[in-house]
Amino acid sequence: MTQHQASTEIEYRQCSSISDFAECVRVQHAVWGESISVPVPIFVVAHHTGGHILGAFQDGQMIGFTQAFTALRGGKLFLHSHVAGVLPQFRDRGVGRRLKLFQREEALRRGIDLIEWTFDPLDLKNGYFNLMRLGVIVRRFLPNCYGLTDSPLHAGLPTDRLVAEWWLDSDRVKAVLAGSRPPVSATAERIEIPAEFATLREADRAAAARIQSEARKQFQNWFARDYAATGVDRRDRGTDYLLEPAASVAGLNGSKISKES
To answer: What is the DSSP code (8-state) at residue 247?
Structure first.
């Protein structure tokens, strides 16, 4: 079994047993409640069809995990990272980032150089983490990707999603993981998400829906013009996604994949 030790306290390893997968379900319930969760059989399928499930453990108890499926598009084999979660009491301690780094190591060991996943463009903390701490780029927008749900997480809003492309062995990613900021042109276009959006999602659904709709239009416009989101700029009045022509994005070593699903 492949293992990776990030510290004396937390062990990162592959998961392959039903008991491990049941722990993944337990973590999901603790993080998001029981309204939305990936069940054990899906973890079994991912494990036996070339995907992987990676867990973070402290004193033998799972505190976080990530799960990915194998995927194919345009003749390119990659991983689609479907779900990841860390127990609330272990957040902001680097566990999520270590899981992603372990996921990168495992993919590269297998000769896979791309991992994709979806994320909510209005989850600004996650957006910053993905673009600024991992070095992903974004060229695709999936409107209402998972449909409307009754989950309190979605507050009745459409489940719009950006698609992160993590080119694992690119100069860009290696530089970001070494501590550099992703290079972004000074003339990059901006999509601003107001700082008050998180509050409005709970207090004023109509206002939140208007902000979401405007962001959707802007992302679709720029992606249709072959731009890519390459950075996030935090400001007092809100957070800006930074976009520039995809052809000008440096450090991808020529890696390309069709945007078509």
So the answer is: G
Give the burial class of 70: count Cβ atoms within 10 A of its Cβ; 0-12 exposed, 13-18 middle, 19 or more buried: middle
- Gap between the Cα atoms of 240 and 222, Å rounded: 14
Q: For residues 162 and 183, give the distance between their C-alpha atoms in angstroms, rounded to a whole number.
A: 20
Closest CA to 4 of 95, 70, 127: 95
pLDDT tens column, 141-184: 999 998 877 665 666 789 999 999 999 999 999 999 999 999 88
Of 169, 172, 174, 69, the closest CA to residue 111 belongs to 169
Q: Give the chain's length.
A: 261
Determine the Cα–Cα distance for residues 57 and 11; give it in Å rounded to an integer. 5
For residue 137, the cross-strand partners are: 165
Residues 243, 232 contacting (CB under 8 angstroms): no
Q: What share of the chain is helix, strand, coil (3-state, %, to 5)?
A: 35, 30, 35
**Ordered structural domains, the chain, with CATH:** 3-183 (3.40.630.30)
H, E, C per residue of 210-240: HHHHHHHHHHHHHHHCCEEEEEEEEECCEEE
User: Given a cut of 50, is residue 4 above it in pLDDT?
Assistant: no
